[in-house]
User: Fold this.
Amino acid sequence: MAATDPRLDAYIANAAEFAQPILTHLRAVVHAACPGVEETIKWGLPHFTHKGMLCHMAAFKAHCAFGFSKADLVMAAHAKTGAMGEFGRIASVADLPSKATLVKFIKAAKKLNDEGVKSSAQKKPATPLPLGVPGDLLAALVAAGPALANFDVFTAAQKREYVAWLDEAKTDATRQRRLAQAVEWIAQAKTRNWKYAKC
Assistant:
């Protein structure tokens, strides 16, 4: 295997026992498919880069996730739903596609990065509305493990609902209570108004 980042070693070692062989397998497949890939930790999660973001993996209490930065182009109709990433909730190595299939996807992602192709998700929106995430919210999300990853996949409107709710607090005590509640809900992948969402 190529050069590795000791932070990924630590992440895998600290993951639940069921997750360790999954993460180890994914890491080895990424290195095999993209020699020279670089490892890093972003937003508290293991990422692999090659001329830009390539793919990422994560371990949760009962499942793992694996996905691509340009999933809309790499995976197309193959993506599953139900978890962060494009392979659904991965509870064992058997839940993953074959090594050959994973290698095919990783090589496709590498080729896109080599060619400088941008995903549709990376294209500039028609009406950009910048979202400033308050420092206290960002720090709390980073400290809460999967909360930041969940927040990252929320729509801009869903993120703004949490930011506005915090900013509307009249006192620091109220803001701190709301911050704690927000992080708890986001860690559960709940939007600010989840109680009123249609099932």
